[in-house]
């Protein structure tokens, strides 16, 4: 296990803190060659990207949402580590990243919402978390 793996797990956790589906979907999209798995992962991310913009969507900082995001970050860390053994540290890094991404993303939306309408702020956040997840999962198909 390398420090790069732990960093990537933390980054994936940050992304999962922003959009919980990315914790599992990003590794699936980058590593799986099975079409049904990739389609399900893509549908989960697309659904969450849309649902996030709805006014009835609850805050990411309420207990059930936080728990899901922490679990998604931890699971993403485990997926990144499964080919390299010893997933405990990446799992913890993924969960810690998810906590940071959850709180940081909520704070970002609060601050951005004071300056611009919510939709552009949410779309900017989408771009950031999808980019972070993509960077975290680079090379996963090759087992790196």
Automatic annotation (TrEMBL):
It comes from Geodermatophilus arenarius. This is DUF4126 domain-containing protein. It comes from the Bacteria. The keyword Signal applies. Residues 1-25 form the signal peptide. The lineage of its organism: Bacteria, Bacillati, Actinomycetota, Actinomycetes, Geodermatophilales. Keywords: Signal.
